[in-house]
Each structure stands twice: as C-alpha cells, then as structure tokens.
Design brief:
Elements: E1 6-10, H1 11-24, E2 29-34, H2 41-50, E3 61-67, H3 74-85, E4 89-93, E5 101-104, E6 108-112, E7 121-125, H4 128-144, E8 146-147, H5 148-151, H6 160-170, H7 175-182, H8 186-200, H9 205-220
Parallel strand pairs: 2-3, 3-4
Antiparallel strand pairs: 1-7, 2-5, 4-8, 5-6, 6-7
Helix pairs in contact: 1-2, 6-8, 6-9, 7-8
C-alpha cells in the first residue's frame, strides 16, 4: 500500500477541489451510501456542475442507498423523488448505514467521517482490496434494501383518532402526557403509536414525530389535498 492511494480531505470544498474530477469522470458505476441527503449532496452536485456534466449519462449505473432517516422530512422526501425521477436508482435501508461512502467505477472509494465541529473528513482510497470490500458491503445492503416507491406509498386513510395521536407525536409529548391529553390508558396510547409508526414506515419515535409534522402541515395547506381523513 502506497501513501498516494489513501488521501484525507477536510470539508466539502476540498472534496470538490481535489476529488471532484473523480465524480465527473465516472463512466461505469457510481454508488452512494448515506444516512441522509446532507453527507454527499452538496459536494457531488458542485462537482458535476463544475464539470458541466449531467449526473446520469448513457451506460452509467447510478445507485443511491439511504437510511430511513432520509425520509423523515417532507423536503428530503421530495428531493429523493426528484433524484429517482432523473433515472438514478434509489433504495432505502431498514438498518443503519454503518459506513457512508461513494464507490466510483470499482476503482475508487471515498469514505465520509463523522463531522467534527461541523467539518467532515473524507478519505479517498484507490487500494483495490479496500475498494472491493466497500463495494461488497454496499451491494449486500442494496440487495436487502427497499425501493423508494415502496417506502413512500401514501398511507391508508387515518381516522380522527389517529390524527389526534399524530398531533401528540408532532408536539413531542411523552407517552404519559399523550395518553392523558387523549383520555386513554397508557397501554392504549402506546398501541396507537406503534400502529401509526408502522403505517408511516417510521423506524423511531423521533422519525415518526417528524413525519407527523409533515403530514399535518400538508393537511393544513389550503392548496394541498388532505393527507389525513
């Protein structure tokens, strides 16, 4: 292993300046794994803009894998749908994304580090054995992930009772407070919350609360169709 096969970059600006050409030069395969849209979007989009090249080109397989955290906010969901509509394959992993990474043409892997004081480090690797390992992990996660369309189908109509429970989730109330506000037992309240989480496809109470806010906002918007019945 030689030093020039592993390079560490600091922040999105340096990522674009020193590795942006790798994104634009992709010809066969471009794989992205991320917890949400924040890790890679700005850097990748900037690189493609500077290279004056569209994301999707003939013959290029482009796949993006996200965790369910990417579905938590309405704007993120809209962006995911636009990505999928452009011809890029998008899937959602039921489990966490343990390593956020990009693999380019089976020759380069870029690994994202955890932000430190708001700045990420990005490790660019050209070592074949490491690139193959990262790509294998991506493929294994991709095979068990769910198509975006199957994750974002409209939920079935919800009752007024369900709407009230959504409001307590959106407000961030504890189970005890939510049960008291709705005048039901703690056990009944928790059952209703579990049913709503399943209907929304939420992997956590926090995510369910974010999704609930989005649904209630859509319901309140004058021009939007009611999301809840």
């Amino acid at each position: 292993m030689t030093f020039d096969r592993i390079i560490t970059l600091h922040g999105e600006d340096e990522l674009v300046q020193r590795a942006g050409h790798l994104f634009v030069a992709s010809r066969e395969e471009f794989l992205v794994a991320a917890a949400d849209l924040m890790t890679w979007s700005a850097g990748v989009n900037a690189a493609f803009r500077e290279g004056k090249r569209p994301h999707v080109v003939p013959g290029l397989t482009m796949r993006k894998l996200y965790s369910r955290r990417a579905l938590a906010e309405p704007e993120s969901l809209r962006r995911l749908r636009r990505i999928a509509a452009s011809g890029i394959e998008v899937r959602i992993s039921d489990g966490p994304i343990t390593r956020e990474a990009i693999v380019i043409d089976r020759r380069t892997a870029i690994l994202a580090g955890v932000p430190v004081r708001g700045v990420r480090t990005y490790t660019v690797v050209h070592t074949p054995e490491v690139v193959d390992g990262v790509r294998s992990l991506f493929r294994a996660s991709w095979e068990t992930a769910t198509e975006l369309a199957d994750c974002t189908a409209s939920p079935p109509p919800l009752t007024g009772q369900a709407r009230d429970t959504l409001r307590t989730l959106a407000a961030g109330h504890t189970d005890e407070t939510g049960a008291r506000l709705l005048g039901v037992s703690l056990r009944t309240y928790r059952r209703r919350v579990a049913e709503l989480m399943a209907a929304l496809g939420a992997g956590s109470r926090f995510q369910a609360g974010l999704l609930a806010r989005g649904l209630l906002d859509e319901e309140a918007a004058p021009a939007a169709p009611a999301a809840l019945r």
